[in-house]
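for the recovery benchmark. tokens below, seq after
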């Protein structure tokens, strides 16, 4: 949550008043009430965003396997924000574990789900946080990011299986010239005949 400069001034005055209680002027009281309203609105907006993102994740899960890339991206973002994987997520990832990204996510989700179950059995609730927005921050080249090699998701070791030959296509891919034939240039028009003026 970010505060504007005015909101920070109000917050600083409210904290100073909490440390050294004195009667506040009416203007300061109104400012504090407006700030409290803005914080409440931001909290409710975060709840609406969480509900939307969880519904979006459920829609992508239901549309699998056609929405594989979008589902895996949303699930990674949700896990990074503290999302607790549901049994439906684990079942979907088990069905998709042939892909390396899905297999790595399945391992991660299984660890998180086990940790969550143990926390619930111990009587403490696992913290619930909203998934972060989908935009990602990218590191610019240079600095410490350039010195380290980026982490890649671990791929489970599989026994060497014979490679299956690719299924032959029924029809070859058409060339662009077949799909979009070149335009024919119109034949040059004959010079106009001169008319005799009568």
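predicted aa per position
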């Amino acid at each position: 949550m970010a505060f504007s400069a005015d909101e920070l001034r109000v917050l600083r005055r409210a904290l100073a008043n909490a440390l050294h209680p004195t009667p506040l002027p009416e203007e300061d009281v109104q400012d504090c009430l407006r700030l409290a309203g803005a914080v409440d609105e931001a909290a409710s907006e975060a709840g609406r965003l969480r509900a939307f993102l969880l519904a979006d994740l459920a829609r992508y899960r239901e549309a699998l396997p056609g929405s594989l890339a979008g589902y895996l991206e949303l699930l990674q973002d949700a896990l990074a924000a503290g999302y607790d994987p549901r049994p439906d997520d684990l079942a979907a990832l088990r069905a998709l574990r042939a892909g390396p990204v899905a297999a790595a996510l399945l391992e991660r989700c299984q660890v998180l789900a086990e940790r969550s179950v143990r926390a619930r059995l111990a009587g403490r609730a696992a913290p619930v946080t909203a998934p972060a927005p989908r935009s990602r921050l990218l590191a610019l080249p240079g600095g410490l990011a350039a010195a380290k090699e980026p982490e890649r998701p671990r791929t489970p070791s599989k026994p060497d299986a014979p490679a299956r030959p690719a299924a032959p296509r029924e029809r070859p891919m058409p060339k662009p010239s077949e799909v979009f034939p070149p335009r024919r240039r119109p034949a040059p028009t004959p010079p106009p005949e001169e008319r005799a003026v009568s």
